[in-house]
Amino acid sequence: MNADILGIGEPLIEMVKLPHPIDGRPAYVQGFGGDTSTAIVAAARQGAKTGYLTALGDDMFGEAIRALWTREGIDHTHVLTREGDPTGVCFIDPDPAGRRFTYARRGSAASFYSPADLPEDAIAAAKVLHLSGVTLAISPTMRAAALRACDIARASGTLVSLDLNHRPRLWSDDLAREVLASVPADIVFPSDDEAERLLGLTDTDAVLDHYLERGARIVALKRGAEGAIIATSDTRQHIPAAPATPVDSAGAGDSFAGAFLAYWLETADPHLAATRAAKVAAGTVSGLGAVEPIPRRKAIIDND
Prior knowledge:
The chain is of the alpha/beta class and about 300 residues long. The protein has helices at about 35-45, 60-70, 120-125, 135, 140-155, 175-180, 190-200, 205-215, 250-265, 270-285, 295-300; strands at about 5-10, 10-15, 30-35, 50-55, 55, 80, 90, 100-105, 130, 160-165, 185-190, 220, 230, 235-240. Helix 1 (about 35-45) crosses helix 9 and helix 9 (about 250-265) runs antiparallel to helix 10 (about 270-285). The longest helix has 17 residues, at about 140-155. The radius of gyration is 18 Å and the shape is globular.
């Protein structure tokens, strides 16, 4: 199956801390995470044809992630299995507003993914290649693979979608600033805090101008509880956040990005796509974990 939206990065097994200890000890429930994988699940649940590029360990966690993708209809034909290298894990202490992550991903199978592993035909056949700052920060080899994938996409007419998702624990601000600026992104998903930290910009129009002037067709500025601003060369529109009862903020921005891509490809209307994506993000934060609470298409369309 050729994927319309093809993600690249590192999926993670997510261990979410439960609110109440068991016998005085912290208790966790297993879920799934990884920013671009979460975005691809969100896109798939909205009806898009999706696929993913990465490497997984030959372990039960890698098998669980493949099983998830199979259930969601995500093509993982081109995902590699690396013997002896683990699948990454992320521990999450849920918070309705913040992000509290602890990673166990050093030396993971995905961190060894390289340009030689790329399926060029699959990238060329996609409509959108989706990557993130985390994808680019995982390791030098994954970074090289992702940047090469962008080159293949550009040469083939495949659009490049970039979610900044800056994680200072993974790389320095200076390196992030340099590498992210080199990505030829057609669709960009920054956030207010990332724009201030990486660009030194706090004015909304200045942030939007920055990316539009560098060739982006669409900028979706994520603003948390304040919603998002969608900008093109012709229009700028505020999209209010959808009603939610926040429990866990993990996956909110990722599910927004994936749902936006799915609905934008379907409708060619970035404002409608963002309005629906806001509903997906609201559903995501209303449950524990990045993936499990992501709403499916019917729940979104029925409430249009």
